[in-house]
Write a structure and sequence with these properties.
The structure holds three protein chains of three kinds. Chain B is mainly alpha-helical. Helices cover about 70% and strands about 0% of the residues of chain B. Chain B has one domain. In chain B, helix 4 packs across helix 5 and helix 6 runs parallel beside helix 14. The N and C termini of chain B lie far apart (about 50 Å). By secondary structure, chain C is an alpha/beta fold. In chain C, the strands form two sheets. Chain C has a six-stranded mixed β-sheet with strand order 2-1-3-10-4-11, with helices on both faces. In chain C, strands 7-6-8-5-9 form a five-stranded mixed β-sheet, with helices on both faces. The longest helix of chain C is centred in the C-terminal third of the chain and has 22 residues. The chains are: A mainly alpha, B mainly alpha, C alpha/beta. At the A-B interface, helix 1, strand 3, helix 2, helix 4 and helix 5 of A face helix 3, helix 8, helix 9, helix 19 and helix 20 of B. Chain B: Keywords: Membrane, Transmembrane, Transmembrane helix.
Chain lengths: ~170, ~525, ~350
């Protein structure tokens, strides 16, 4: 199965099997960790019904079992070994949107949501979309201003804010 | 008939210029809050509640309930266009709505969703008009075992539907249940799986998870594949509305079934979310073409939307008649009632006739007005898909961040949303379905509470789930649903037809959930 | 297009509110807010704390008591622990006040939450909430004595008592009643008092100890019966609420053989590190608030006990109250040990 017309031209970065194994292994670790925590809390059946850890514990067992099954299934499958999870250039494109998004969230934490979204939208349009600079700046500004007007001014939903908003007294 | 007289009286109260204007304003504001992810019905109503403090109660409830109708309509828009549920109850709408949009049928899907919403609401309002007292007493018969039975029915109608490999469905369900259990345990009062972290105290909010799992991951996938959302070539003309309408009568069974499910779950507070899932599942199960659900079938849009809106509307009844909110939004409206000096409860219908019947009349008019407004905007919303990806993608991400933050006013939730985005991307690409996880996330802790509340006391034991006719019927129905595939086979065997379906493809390729 | 239309309409609506607020802010305290004030509600939507916050919001805005708008923010995670921890983290922020109830004692004790009300700035206690012993109107128990006799006859735990949350005020009260009356209930924790009220009407539980406001609707409809109030004197609201009873007609539990007083504070705190000027502004604001008709109506409707405790008196009360909680919770085994 290939995901697009250009999947054949795109050299494989990683096979579906490897990713599936990694995901299943992570889920297994999570299951063990959560199972242990709930066991500690009490996973028995008291006279007045199950203890707080009862359901989560057995769910963790179920999750662990299913991910073990998943590991076995992935190891056995030849088909998955050859299947391309993501090609190099495709993954590059994913990073081109994912990394800026991380940057955006970091900016929200540092300088507030509105300035961050202006920077993010404008920069994304210029550097990823290769759109005209004035258009990008204008779009970013109009969108952020509109959001500010709707949320902070009209609806009184207070978003995280930074020094710029503080300078205007918000 | 007394109800009709009262209703006419209600229309009389409502039909003033002032109230009609408020109705339109409410619906437009509601659509706006419905479209913005995270800022859903409860938040929207809560935010606008202060505006109504100075109004008289009837005008106030008209404005606020119309915001609610608007939000009910608006929630479907982003689900269909971007695979981002604007509201928790529109998650099931994404299953077929988004594939339809990808096939270039965004306008059809939107029309179907809006019309179905309208149908569900009207069915529920009629129920409220004529059967209010009877339904109010029915809701009282629900104790913990009954609630658990309803949740069990929702889950059982869901299990065994997916085409994905069994272990992947189990993973998704178990993970959803575990995430739902994080935070304070109602029954024991203990903190579970918080690991001493303050941020984990509030648990995982369903909306934050959904915005990440569906919205952010969809952007990542869209970027990986084509640098664009599909479905740009959608033909957008208002005549689409008419053509879609012509096809709807043939789905009357689905519409009626979903309305019934919705009314029932709304009254019993199972909620609009459970209703939308159950509506979708049953439509899929009983459809002759069930295998094609999830690939863009119009029935898959009609079923959850009808059920969600029937539930959302009928959820107001227990609030008015009993003073118990059937949904989050109803809870906020309840607070509003008290601020306006009204006392919700059994006497409201007797003491505040103007208010109650004005509200019921506004349910009719508000939904009609809402339908006209949203249908008129179908081309507008569908054309959003034509905006260049590089422009719309960052805007969607910003809206998602605002939504995730607004749910609980927590910066941590924005990071969480990002994390869920990665999980969603990996799961979608490794064929782990997201739907079971979202269902478990929203109903898991409620089901667990109800189960454990049932176990307390001298009569606590599994027998309690068959202790009276009502709970026994629901529980048995749930088990029948669970073993339906098996029962179906047995029936086939008994007939001796020997028909065998090809063993459900266990292929775990890169098929999308 | 749509958005701008919508926004215009919203602007039209808010115009009145904002315009009124902008002008005529009385200048009495040295410190004045310049941005919206948040009321943090450490509880879910529609609950008693939320209702109180909405009422305060309405009363403050309608009477133009504050120059800036009031915003209500729900932070109800972990039985309110989320809201309380948020207040701890907001040291020095004079734009946040929290409506608190007894969770300020129970959460640190039962869940080892690293919270202490001494790390916040107490402003004032606006009211106290009473607790009433309620049974279904269809049940044969006319008085508290009838009821206690009936419970004693059945095997221990046959009577289900429903309340809000586990190891919270309802649960502690139930355990205290068990000890004093020598009976044993099965306690069923629900998410809210409203739920406990409906469950009582539906006969899924035999008894609850809801606050008056949580049961008033079903009481007026003749679906539940009030047996006694856990206070030293009857509630001081003589106006008839049901066909033949007023709040004042409910006898005290002490007079009925259960000698126990149990009231819950509904108070307001600011974060730590705020200046005396800021505290003065809020004390002044709340002082004016309790004089408004909205607030008085609210007290009567919810049958709350008025209070004007603030400053040192409030701290003294909190310390005494906390000791009581600690004692009762220890006796019932609700204090976290691990």
């Amino acid at each position: 199965m290939s995901d697009g017309p250009h999947a054949d031209l795109d050299p494989a970065l990683v096979s579906t099997r490897s990713v599936e194994l990694a995901v299943m292994a992570l889920l297994l670790c999570l299951a063990i960790f959560l199972g242990w925590d709930n066991w500690r809390l009490g996973a028995g059946w008291a006279p007045d019904g199950p203890q707080p850890g009862y359901f989560p514990f057995y769910l963790a067992v179920l999750l662990g079992g299913a991910s073990l099954w998943g590991i076995a299934a992935a190891l056995r499958s030849e088909e998955l070994r050859e299947e391309i999870f993501v090609g190099r250039s495709a993954f590059g494109r994913v990073l081109r949107v994912f990394l800026p998004t991380i940057g955006f969230v970091l900016l929200v934490q540092l300088i507030g949501l509105y300035v961050a979204s202006f920077v993010f939208i404008a920069a994304f349009m210029v550097f990823v979309g290769r759109l005209a600079v004035w258009k990008s700046l204008l779009t970013g500004f109009v969108f952020s201003a509109l959001m500010f007007y709707v949320f902070d001014v009209q609806f009184n939903v207070l978003m995280p804010k930074g020094p710029l908003e503080a300078a205007f007294g918000f | 008939m007394e109800a009709l007289d009262s209703l006419l009286h209600g229309f009389g109260v409502l039909l003033t210029f002032h109230n009609m204007l408020l109705m339109l304003v409410g619906i437009c504001l509601g659509i706006l809050v419905g479209v913005l992810p995270g800022l859903g019905g409860p938040n929207g109503v809560a935010i606008l509640l202060p505006l109504t403090f100075t109004m008289d109660p009837t005008s106030a409830i008209v404005l606020l309930s119309c915001i609610y109708w608007g939000a009910l309509f608006g929630g479907a828009i982003t689900s269909i266009l971007f695979n981002i549920p604007g509201e928790a109850w529109s998650v099931a709408t994404t299953f077929d709505g988004y594939p339809m949009a990808q096939k270039g049928q965004a306008a059809e899907a939107l029309t179907a969703a809006f019309t179905a919403s309208f149908f569900g609401s009207i069915a529920a309002v009629m129920l409220i008009t004529f059967l209010a007292p009877w339904i109010a007493t029915f809701a009282l018969r629900f104790g913990p075992p009954e609630f658990f039975a309803v949740y069990l029915l929702t889950f059982c109608s869901f299990v065994g539907l997916g085409k994905e490999a069994r272990h992947k469905i189990v993973i998704s369900l178990a993970l959803g249940f575990l995430l739902a259990a994080v935070g304070m345990d109602t029954v024991s009062g203990e903190l579970r799986m918080t690991f001493g972290s303050v941020e984990m105290l509030r648990g995982f909010d369903f909306l934050v998870a959904v915005i990440g799992l569906f919205g952010i991951s969809e952007i990542l996938l869209a970027m990986e594949e084509h640098l664009a959302f599909k479905g740009q070539e959608a033909k957008i003309r208002l005549s689409v509305v008419w053509r879609t309408w012509l096809t709807l009568p043939r789905y009357w069974v689905t519409l009626l079934r979903s309305s019934a499910i919705g009314c029932w779950l709304g009254v019993t507070p199972g909620g609009a979310i459970a209703a939308s899932f159950m509506g979708y599942n049953l439509a899929k199960r009983f459809s002759r073409d069930g295998a094609n659900f999830g690939k863009g079938k119009i029935e898959g849009v009609l079923a959850p939307e009808t059920a969600a809106h029937a539930a959302g509307t009928s959820a107001l009844l227990p609030m008015l008649a009993l003073g118990i909110p059937g949904s989050g939004t109803a809870a906020v409206l309840l607070g509003g009632l008290m601020v306006w000096g009204l006392q919700p409860g059994p006497l409201l219908f007797v003491e505040q006739k103007d208010f109650v019947w004005g509200l019921i009349a506004s349910m009719y008019l508000g939904n009609i007005a809402g339908l006209i407004i949203v249908l008129a905007t179908v081309p507008l919303f569908a054309s959003v898909l034509r905006v260049p990806f590089a422009t719309i993608a960052p805007m969607i991400i910003v809206s998602c961040a605002i939504g995730a933050f607004a749910v609980q006013n927590a910066m941590f939730d924005i990071w969480l949303m990002l994390g869920f985005g990665v999980v969603g991307y990996l799961f979608k690409k490794t064929g782990i379905p997201l739907a079971p996880m979202t269902l478990a996330l929203v109903l898991g802790d409620k089901a667990e509470d109800a189960f454990r509340q049932s176990m307390i006391g001298l009569d606590g034991g599994l027998g309690i789930f068959w202790s009276n006719k009502l709970v026994g019927t629901i529980t048995t129905l749930a088990l029948v649903m669970l073993f339906w595939p098996l029962i179906g086979k047995l029936i086939d065997l008994a007939r001796g037809s020997g028909r065998h379906e090809p063993a459900g493809a266990a292929g775990s390729g890169s098929s999308r959930a | 297009m749509l958005k701008s239309f919508v926004a215009k309409r919203a602007a039209l609506l808010t115009a009145c509110v904002t315009a009124c607020l902008g002008i005529g802010a009385p200048a009495m305290a040295a410190w004045q807010p310049t941005k919206p004030i948040e009321i943090i509600v450490p509880a879910g939507a529609g609950g008693a704390s939320d209702q109180m916050a909405r009422m305060m919001q309405a009363a403050i805005q309608n009477n133009k008591l504050s120059p800036t708008p009031i915003v209500v923010t729900l932070k109800g995670g972990a039985n309110g622990g989320e809201g309380l921890m948020d207040m701890l983290a907001s040291a020095g922020d004079p734009y946040k006040m929290v409506i608190s109830n007894s969770a300020i004692y129970t959460l640190p004790l039962a869940n080892k939450l690293p919270f202490d009300w001494r790390k916040l700035t107490p402003v004032s206690i606006l009211a106290f909430d009473n607790f009433v012993l309620w049974v279904n109107a269809g049940s044969p128990y006319k008085t508290t004595q009838d009821f206690v006799e009936a419970v004693k006859k059945e095997p221990a735990g046959a009577f289900k008592l429903g309340g809000t949350g586990s190891k919270r005020e309802d649960h502690i009260l139930a355990a205290a009643v068990e000890r004093i009356a020598g009976v044993k209930f099965s306690y069923i924790p629900y998410k809210s008092g409203g739920e406990a009220a409906t469950q009582l009407v539906g006969d899924h539980i035999k008894v609850n100890v809801n606050n008056p406001s949580e049961n008033v609707a079903v009481w007026r409809a003749g679906q539940v019966r009030a047996l006694c109030v856990f206070d030293t004197e009857p509630m001081n609201y003589p106006a008839k609420v049901t066909a033949d009873q007023s709040w004042k007609d409910i006898p005290t539990c002490k007079s009925q053989g259960i000698d126990f007083q149990w009231i819950m504070l509904r108070g307001v705190f600011l974060p730590s590190g705020v200046t005396p000027d800021q505290v003065a502004f809020y004390q002044d604001l709340l002082g004016k608030l309790v004089q408004t008709t909205e607030f008085k109506d609210y007290l009567e409707k919810q049958a709350l006990k008025p209070s004007d405790l603030k400053g040192a008196e409030m701290v003294k009360f909190l310390e005494k109250d906390e000791a009581l909680y600690k004692d009762l919770m220890t006796q019932s085994g609700f204090v976290a040990t691990n």
